[in-house]
């Protein structure tokens, strides 16, 4: 049992190291991280008890599961609000993805008239379809322009200027995507480790002893292959959503990553 706890602690440390680097880089200190960890322990413990059929776990059950004292559990039973947007719910992200899909099929659609004219496809048409009319197309356009995803070409047209919805021009959105993407990647690996079904696809390849030019070459190759796979997946998922009318009960996130750095020398 002690070995199991030690192994799990070491795995958690590896996963958390880059997050600690992020936290320090953004100015978070130990009290911030400790408070966050206590909230997460309580939230996940509640989910655990609910999966076991206990709809409302009591203070003692949560205290025993988390190791927090009863006073601390009582003070934290109300889940704090998340200040970051949920990326999968963004009308801007949905509109961008649909526009990118259309432009891939027909490069002429890289540039669109802003307003519907009853003839040519417009940005208004794409936004209305993607957001199901819940958000005005001007608001969606303003958000995409703010994030650097598209730009004006003349008074009445807009042009797609990004190859993926990665809003690096906005810190809040960037952090939201980081959180959502890493959360689901880690969730897939944790689900597989805990033996939950079904098994999730979660693979990686590792190499060392590479030159910088080798890394650059592989990086470009991966980007090109991902671009094609991304187009195929968007088409398949768009058709699937159309079949269910968007009313299916499952959500899905598919991602890819590549990381490289200098090797640490032995003894460092």
Keyword list:
268 residues; Arc Repressor Mutant, subunit A; 3-stranded antiparallel beta sheet; globular
The string of secondary-structure elements, in order, is: HHHHHEHHEEHH
Could you report the average pLDDT, rounded to the nearest whole number?
A: 89
Helix content: 55-70%
Largest sheet: 3 strands, antiparallel
Low-pLDDT segments: none
Assign the structural class, choosing from mainly alpha, mainly beta, alpha/beta, alpha+beta, or little secondary structure. Answer: mainly alpha
| Widest beta sheet: strand line-up | 1-3-2
- According to DSSP, the number of beta strands is 3
- How much of the sequence lies in strands comes to under 5%
In terms of quaternary structure, what is this? single chain
| Tally of alpha and pi helices | 9
Rg calc: 23 Å
Q: State the end-to-end CA separation.
A: 31 Å
Specify the overall morphology: globular
Pfam families: DUF6502
């Amino acid at each position: 049992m002690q070995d199991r706890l030690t192994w799990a602690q070491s795995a958690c440390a590896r996963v958390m190291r880059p997050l600690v680097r992020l936290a320090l880089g953004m100015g978070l200190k130990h009290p911030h991280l400790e408070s966050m960890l206590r909230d997460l322990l309580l939230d996940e413990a509640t989910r655990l008890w609910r999966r076991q059929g206990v709809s409302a776990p009591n203070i003692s059950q949560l205290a025993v599961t988390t190791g927090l004292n009863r006073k601390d559990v009582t003070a934290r039973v109300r889940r704090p609000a998340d200040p970051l947007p949920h990326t999968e719910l963004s009308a801007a992200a949905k509109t961008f993805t649909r526009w990118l899909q259309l432009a891939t099929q027909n490069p002429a659609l890289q540039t669109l008239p802003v307003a519907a004219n009853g003839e040519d496809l417009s940005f208004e048409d794409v936004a209305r379809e993607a957001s199901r009319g819940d958000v005005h197309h001007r608001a969606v356009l303003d958000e995409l322009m703010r994030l650097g995803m598209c730009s004006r070409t003349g008074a009445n047209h807009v042009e797609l200027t990004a190859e993926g919805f990665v809003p690096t021009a906005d810190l809040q959105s960037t952090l939201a995507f980081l959180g959502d993407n890493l959360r689901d990647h880690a969730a897939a690996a944790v689900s597989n480790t805990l033996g939950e079904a079904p098994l999730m696809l979660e693979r990686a390849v590792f190499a060392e002893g590479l030159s910088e030019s080798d890394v650059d070459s592989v990086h470009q190759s991966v980007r090109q292959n991902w671009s094609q796979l991304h187009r195929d997946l968007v088409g398949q998922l768009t058709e699937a959503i159309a079949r269910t009318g968007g009313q299916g009960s499952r959500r899905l996130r598919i991602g890819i990553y590549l990381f490289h750095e200098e090797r640490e020398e032995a003894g460092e």
